[in-house]
Write a structure and sequence with these properties.
5-stranded mixed beta sheet; 4-stranded antiparallel beta sheet; Methylamine Dehydrogenase, Chain H; 42% strand; 1 helix; 408 residues
Amino acid sequence: MTRSILVWLLLMGVAGAARAEDWPQFRGPTGQGISTEQHLPLEWSDTRNVNWKTQVPGLGWSSPAIAGGRIWLTTATAEGGGSLRALAFDVASGRQLINVEVFRVGRPTGEVNPKNSRASPTPVVDGDRVYVHFGAEGTAALTTAGQIVWKTTFPYISQHGNGGSPVLYRDLLIFSCDGYDTAFVIALDKQTGKVRWKTPRPKPISQAYSTPLIIRVGDRDQVVSLGAFRVAAYEPETGREIWTVTYGDGFSNVPTPVFHDGIVYVSTGFQEPWMLAVRADGKGDVSRTHVVWVERRGAPLTPSPVVVGEELYLVSDTGVATCLDRKTGAIRWQQRLGGNFSASPIAADGRIYFLSEEGVGTVIAPGREFRKLATNRLNETTFASMAVSDGSIFIRSDRHLYRITAER
């Protein structure tokens, strides 16, 4: 081996070790709450392992979206009756870099649930563009310098405010609009904001608040979107429906589905939530043929699940964590964590992290037996899901944004 090749390999190794994985959308790079980051903190408090803590103006439950050395959030303030804003913070210091109004609005369309906000969907960062979504109150693209590129609005009546985040697929921005007056899945040209396709939900319709998930089944991509009473997969290029599964009275769906080894895992929503495992290789209505298993105990109304290895992990809104065999649905263990939960768990660095509404972070080891590694407390309300990047965990509370970093 020549000296030049050896030096190149060493430099590439250093660069690879130093490269941080971005968290550019809701639930991270794959949309499923999983990160490859290592050396993450196991323990923290209001003061311990806090790299920095910065105040966030207004109120919003969008999760941090991290790329290009910046953390993006949305928020709503009372300025002029209602100001929906995009915020950016510096990853290294926590300093606020951008605070720009995207929409000026009046009263919300319908009432906002006490657990919700007018700025709950998480931004999506893609190169030099940031896409922000406020449900029926508008969607917009900004430059990473904070300049608005385009804005558009698709009105519908939502009982509890906005919820689901958008996702990107190639040159499309895709999101669900599920009101009790109209419901559809829509794809916009990400450069212009123009509608590329719009697929209505069949009747009966009702509200839902879930984020779509892009998956690949065989040699084709699908966008899986939960709506009231049914989950459907669509061709992301055209919006044509591929398959659907109905689930009775389920509505007001919040959790995002997860996907592993050809199976989609779905929480059906109110009234009584179920977990469904659905093979994603069907066509048409596959309710009778492609449902692998159903579990009615411990399913969440709000937090999304996460898959690690051969197990599916979830936490109910009332704080009961469950580990299921992902192939059979058999319960491996159930454990009460305490508190209430809206944030979705994440898996990173060989651990699973849960965050309660009361600001308690519970860390466990994945496996068929429950093993708690740490309990960590922030004395603030935390509804937004955690984000992971640059060897750190980022937590948004009702007042602050935290960067939590392990002691080095």
